[in-house]
Structure formats: structure tokens, C-alpha cells
């Protein structure tokens, strides 16, 4: 009984016209809510103002969190970049015979390193200092000898007393406060042990000092309407409170401040600590917020009634007219009159319905006019044509005929004592035979090297003394490991065609295989013309998100194709990096876990 009553109510709604439904929606969804809302305007104004103030505090807290996280993330990015810099690590690990050797190595390191560029790119970083336990170093610039005085310092002791490899530490440098009239003695630093490359020859510590004045200034700009405190281990590190911002004095303690029950507190993880963002808002004066409430009430009633009424009338007219037009044409379909609606349809759902109706009418006309049998016959004829073309293409290549022809030319060359030509033909035959006969896509590195060597000999025959090559394998076990076939050859071919061939000078292609840190390293390096910066950035960007669909964006798809095949076999643990400099050459590094390369 209840179900029947419910169905009748729904049927009653379905029977009403669109215009009636829109008027009902206007009365109960606009008119009544507006009158009720304005009736309780005075009673709700206080809550609205409080909510607005709380929202303002929340927005302020979000901005503070964003600015603080941005400053810390930029400093961490500089720290991580320097932490993983191999060139910088070799410079600090090396021993130098005299100061002259040290300065030569120092300037060589700077010329091939991005240290200076990253150091000055971020305003949030004030100073980057490397502390190195290397007696051959000369204090100066960003490098300081790690001596006993530094080991006794507060920040160094804190790093040694923690199990973390990296920490953030805030402290007061009394010596700097006495020497500097502008910066003061407050410091917030990201400190880490430089042990990314495993066991090291010397102890190295990196300290990235944040620009305290710059970061603290951003909090001063948030000074309107509240107090801000950034707290670490009870120390007030940053604040917009002038009493807390005396940079020439030690940090104030939050425990020494009076408590405020209305304050908003949020914890954010920062490296090895949890910092607190504390925001204290000002007390509200509601009397100043209520200005001429009667006038505001009258204005709200006028705006909330007249504007919705006008909109409801316009929307009702649009809906009713177009729905009625569709209904009229559907009635004509019943009489087998398939007329297209030519009036403007619009871009909303009713417009989409009108377009669908027009498409339906057009398709019905086409289906009536098309003879289905003739269409099927044409499709069958087209399929037969495609199959014939495919068979014709397949019959054009006869591998055995090609190999026999190459062998005949080689024997003729031997008879005529043209041994160089004979060797090149033999290498070419080997390349073609291996390309056709390899059933398994995975091959040993020994077979790949033989393949690469054959290709390079052919290219050397072509270029003459312009091309020299070196293939180096540091460990015999590497020869038995397996990689996808043509992987290395693809990069070598790219080096010859795009690197050596386009240059005017002689070039060298070097291929190295070595084991390092449980990974197989394959390096393909050439001294050719290199790549333009835009093209290099495009390839690097595509290496971050490789896909077959994006291959059309590159003029040469060999490198990306090889990288996709490597990822298919070795998942995302394979790494490929490309470095290139115009007119100096290109270097490609491939890193594959030894476990995967050994298993194949």
C-alpha cells in the first residue's frame, strides 16, 4: 500500500509541467530560504563574523605552512643535490700535493659542477659550507677543514649524538652576533653526513644555513590581525612579534609565554623534528562589524528575490521552448517524417539531446538508402585487397637469397684479394643474420658486444680515420649477463649518425661495461656534435614518462624505443640518463640491477 502511494506521488510530479516545477523550486528553494535567512540575520551575524575570523586564521596558517614548507623544500633540494654530486665527492675525497694542485682541482670542479648555480638560485639559502677532514684542503669559499674546534661546536655535537643521517638544527652563534651588525647570531641549518657514495676516505659534513632574515621577513608580512610563532623544541625560531625578533639575542622559549586558549596550533614534520605553527588571533569587536543592518537587510531581500525571479523566468522559457520543439519533431517521426531540427540547439543537455535526435534522423535516412548486401560485398573486397598487398610485401624479401648473394660477393672479393671489402661484407652478413634469426629478445652481453663491434667496423670502413671506437668490459662475468637485443647498438648507432657523422673533426665512440654498487653500468660516450639544449630537455622529459604514444614527438625514436624495452624487462629499476654539450659530445648512462641482469 505504501509502495503504491509513493508511486502515485512520483507520478504526480511527472505530470506537472516544467514551468510549474521551476516555480515550485523557486518558492521552496529561493523565496522561503531567503526570508528565513534574513529573519535571523541579527542572531547569526556574530557567528558569521567568528567563522570569518577563524577562516582568516586558517588561511593565514595555510600560507605560513606553504611558505615555510617551500623555504625548507628549496633548501632540502639544494642539500640533496649536493649530497648526490659525484664530482663534488671526488673533489673532497682527493688528496693534493700542494696548494696549486688544490686550486686547479677546485676550479675544475666548479667549471663542471652546478654548485654555484644552485647556491645562488634560492633566496632561502644563506650559506652552503662543506666541512672536510682532509689535511690537503685550503680553507676558503664553501670548504672548511674539519678541525677540533668545529667538532666541539654545538651543531656538530648534535649531529654526532643522533642516529639520523640528516637533521635540522636551530642555534645561536654568539661569535657571529658580535661580528655581524646585520645578520645577528640566530641560525637554522640543515646538517647532514655526506655518505651517499658508501664507505669514504675522509669524513665530510654538509651544512646548509637558511637565510634567517629572508624567511623571518615573510612572517612579518603576515602581521595584520594576529601573532605567529614557529616553534622547534620550545624555541621560537620565527615570529612576527617584534619582541621575539631580536636577532642579536638567543631564541626565546615558548614555555615562557603566557597561554592563550584561543590559539591555533599545527604540527608539521621538518626533516628530523616536528615544528609547531602557532597562530593567535586578535579579539573581535562585533559592534564595528554591524553597520546599518536594516539597510543591509532590505538590500539582501531585493537582490535575493528579483535576480532569482528573472533567472527562473529566462531558464524556464529556454527549457520549455526547446523541449516542446523536440516533442513536436518526435511526433512527426511517428508519421515516418524524418525532419532535422534546424533551429539553434544550444550547448547544454537539451542541446545535446537535439544533436542526438538530428544524428538519429540522418542515420535512419542513410540506413534506408544503403543496400546492406552491397556494403558487405565491398567490405569483403577491401579485405581481400589488403591481404593480397600483405602477401606481396612479404614475398619481396627472401633472407636466404640475400645471404647467398652477400656470400658470393665476399668470395669474389677474396679471390681478388680485396680482404677489407670481404671483411666488411662478412660483418654485414653477421648483422643481418643475427637480426633475422634471433628468436629470443634477450641476448648475452657478449653477443651484443659482437653485434656492436660488427656495426662499428662497418661504420669505420665508411668514415675511415674519422671514427675510432673502444669497447671495454671490466669483469668477465658481465659477458654472460643478458639484456634486450639491439639495446646498446641503438645508442651506438645514434652516436655515430647524430654525433660523429655531423661533425667536421675526428670522433671517438666509447662503450664501457662495469659493475658498481650492485648494478651493471653501461656507458656509451661519443665526442661528436652533441645536442641542442631544447632537444636534450625534451628527451629528458620524455624519459620521466615514457610511452609508445609519445614516440611521435621525437624525430629519432631509437633512444626512447630502447628505453621502453629496457623498462619492459627490468621494470622501473632501470635508470637511463643523458648528458650532452654542444660540439663536445654526448654521454648515455644505463644502470641495471645486477640481480635482474644476471637472471635475464
Characterize the structure shown.
By secondary structure, the protein is of the alpha+beta class. It contains 21 helices and 17 strands. Strands 2-1-5-4-3 form a five-stranded mixed beta sheet, with helices on both faces. Strands 8-7-6-10-9 form a five-stranded antiparallel beta sheet. The chain has a five-stranded mixed beta sheet with strand order 12-14-15-17-16. 20% of the residues are buried. It is found in: Cell membrane. It is a multi-pass membrane protein. Keywords: Cell membrane, Kinase, Membrane, Phosphoprotein, Transferase, Transmembrane, Transmembrane helix. This is Sensor histidine kinase.
Strand order of the largest sheet: 2-1-5-4-3
Total DSSP E strands: 17
**Overall morphology:** flat
Structural class: alpha+beta
Oligomer: single chain
Quick summary of this structure?
With 600 residues, the protein is of the alpha+beta class. It has helices at residues 2-15, 18-39, 41-83, 86-93, 99-111, 115-121, 148-151, 154-160, 174-179, 212-220, 286-289, 293-334, 349-369, 372-394, 399-415, 419-437, 445-463, 487-500, 533-544, 558-570, 594-599; strands at 125-132, 143-145, 166-172, 186-193, 204-210, 226-232, 235-239, 252-253, 264-270, 273-281, 442-444, 467-473, 482-484, 507-516, 519-526, 575-581, 585-593. The protein is 54% helix and 18% strand.
